Amino acid sequence: MNPLRKIADRLMNWWKGETAPEVSDSTELTGGVMTLNSPSFLESMGLSRKRKTTSEVTYFTCLKMLSETLAKMPIKYYQRTDKGIIEAEQTDTSKLLTKRPNPFMTPTVFWNTVEINRNHYGNAYVYMRKKFIRKKYGGEVKILDLWVMQSNCVQIVVDDAGIFAGKGRLWYVYTDPTSGSQYVFDTSEVMHFKTSFSFDGVTGLPVQQILRDTISGASASQRYMNSLYESGLTAKATLEYTGELNDKAKEALVKSFEDFGSGARNTGKIIPVPLGMKLTPLDIKLSDSQFFELKKYTALQIAAAFGVKPNQINDYSKSSYANSELQQLSFYVDTELFVIKQYEEEINYKMLTDEEQDDGFYYKYNEKVLFRTDSKTQMEYLKNGVSGSIMKPNEARRKLDLPDGEGGDTLLANGSIVPLTMAGAAYQKGQIEQEETEKPEQPEEETEPDTEQPDTTGQPDETDEAEDEEEQEGGE
Q1: Using CA atoms, how far apart are residues 365 and 345, in angstroms rounded to an integer?
Q2: What per-residue confidence (pLDDT) applies to 53?
Q3: What sign has the CA pseudo-torsion 200, 203, 204, 209?
Q4: Residue 20 has what pLDDT?
């Protein structure tokens, strides 16, 4: 049939409102011309078009969960001092991690992209563009911006012959996917993040490579469900007839029944069966083959390989509200703690100078954002922290995005709280007072006055002199 005539007929049917039969292959749209990407050509060669692993819903959900979990945690810049850990003053380098890694990405988008590459390809690479700034005496190397290199465009080269600058050193060869240009970077210019599954410690293996068969099986089950929807959930059927038909007649007969009974557009319509023929559908139920149970089990296997909990892939069959909180804590301890520690170690080693590390500066993810609770629980947490002398009132107000209050930079404590060295002092004091009250009173001893009394033995008394005078007067 002339291809132009066929296309004209399709346009006329569309103009009249008639629905054309569904196209099963791209060759019908190209006038019978078969290309190398045609499904019919691939099937004739025993090949099938490779589907992307990200099209599998469980695999995609795990990638999304892990990448967004890391991206939602902000990076803080701290310093260890003699008085404890304080939040350090921002520098140009720290602003790249907290405000803008490059002109096109925010920190959230940047680290989300890095984590997706790490989980999907097994490795993630971040290029640090540096510049040497000359000063009067020497100079310093400054990091200008950070860029994510697509993991499938990076190749790690080991210089085992010492051709470049030392035997056994690692080099990263990046091929620009747009221009095809190649760039070679030293290990000091690239931050390398890998998965936990690695045999050499240099490169990580992706989950899609380890669970290739499991993910392929999950994709095949999804394709089967799609084919059922496309056929209008119509199962296969057997056609009984009397007589013999050649191959061409069989194909025409089957095609006529498929035109009336196959596809979503024919759902609920009546299928005309010629006289002397019988159409018997094959009753195949998905529940008999435990299709959904196997599909659910496969999803749990993929999630377990990523370290994602069942409730995070919307499986609440064995979960409750309290159990979900425990699973969230288990997800942080079992899965995210390793990822956070790896990122912090690589960032602190590659982005801080030796002097800054010696002075106690370091970067740290704020993992507390993963455990944000309701307002009531948060207020109780802050209240107990302030009353327990753990945090200052202004520190608690900052966590609620409130301004500082006057006198709020002082730790508060209950008056009954004493230092550890004075524990039990109140009981010892009471015991001493009780012993003093029970002790019997002693009589006071008479003490002579300190002043000496004058000696009057040799001096005449005034009363004696008076008596002598009276006697003399009586004698006269």
Answers
A1: 11
A2: 63
A3: negative
A4: 44
Average the pLDDT over 57-63 and give the result: 86
d(CA 41, CA 25): 10
Name the one residue in this structure whose structure tokens are 């967004």.
Answer: 68
CB 109 within 8 A of CB 115: no
pLDDT per residue over 244-272, tens digit each?
A: 777 777 777 777 766 666 655 656 566 67
What is the mean pLDDT of the segment spanning 21-38?
48
CA distance 376 to 41: 64
- The Cα–Cα gap between 115 and 211 comes to 19
Name the β-bridge partners of 139.
Answer: 134
User: Could you tell me if 306 and 272 are in contact, meaning their C-beta atoms sit under 8 angstroms apart?
Assistant: no
Any idea which of 35-44, 341-350, 361-370, 384-393 has the lowest mean pLDDT? 35-44
C-alpha pair distances (Å), 455 with each of 458, 459, 466 = 8, 8, 21
| Strands (E) located in 153-227 | 154-159, 169-175, 182-186, 190-194
- Could you list the beta-strand ranges (E) of 220-339: 237-240, 278-281
Mean pLDDT for the chain overall: 76
Gap between the Cα atoms of 189 and 130, Å rounded = 8
φ, ψ at 385 (rounded to 5°): -70, -40
Count Cβ atoms below 10 Å from residue 96 Cβ, excluding itself.
20
Cα-Cα-Cα-Cα dihedral sign, residues 228, 229, 234, 239: negative
The closest of 149, 196, 436 to 340, measured between CA atoms, is 196
Tell whether the model's pLDDT for residue 157 goes beyond 70. Answer: yes
